[in-house]
Amino acid sequence: MLQVCPNGSRAEGVPTSPDEIAAAVRAAVDVGAEDAHLHPKDDAGADTLEAFHVAETVTAVRVATPSIRVGVTTGAWTEPDPVERAALIRSWTVLPDHASVNFHEEGAELVAEALFERGVAIEAGIFSGTGAAERFLRWPHAHHVLRILAEVTDTDPETATGAAKALLHELGTHLSRPILLHGEDGGAWPVLRLAVRLNLDVRIGLEDTLDLPDGSPAADNAALIQTARALLAP
Hints:
The chain is an alpha/beta fold. It has a single domain, classed as TIM Barrel, CATH 3.20.20. The protein has helices at about 20-30, 50-65, 80-90, 110-120, 130-140, 160-170, 190-195, 220-230; strands at about 1-5, 35-40, 70-75, 100, 120-125, 145-150, 180, 200-205. The protein starts with a strand and ends with a helix.
């Protein structure tokens, strides 16, 4: 599975309005994306979980690309208080298909429980270099997540694949949940290539990297997805 992550928490050079995000996802789907992970933005361009903005963004993407599943972030930077984050999720009027929960963040279990209550599937975000893997594996509902979003935070292209292998070792193989492995910035393409070799789910987009594998700037999300799709081809 190839997921597009079109914006992330970057401040510049990424789609921010619902229409811009929807157009970016549509273009990415046209060249091979099969799923989307979004960061809804408020009027100032900051990531938000506010019901109005989540509804606007998710609806715009679904209208543009009704064939794919749409997910959103619940990262702590959207709202530091996990109790308030859970309350915002409970206030959503339009539900995404899935949402990521970062298990190194305080109150991750509270946020995940709110998503379960709303019937929203969970991508369990497990960052390398944190205690997230151990914490997630202790969680009684680990077997019920949609997938594990294994996030390699090492941006050095020379060492990112080693960090990815260490993270996969931490997660083990006994959960039988799909794993989406991805890196960021300089580590994005080396980690994606490793994920392809291991037959894992992958993602790419301007959230993860602004560059193509040769180091040249990517024109847009579609260019990144098109390149990733070529790497996935048998």
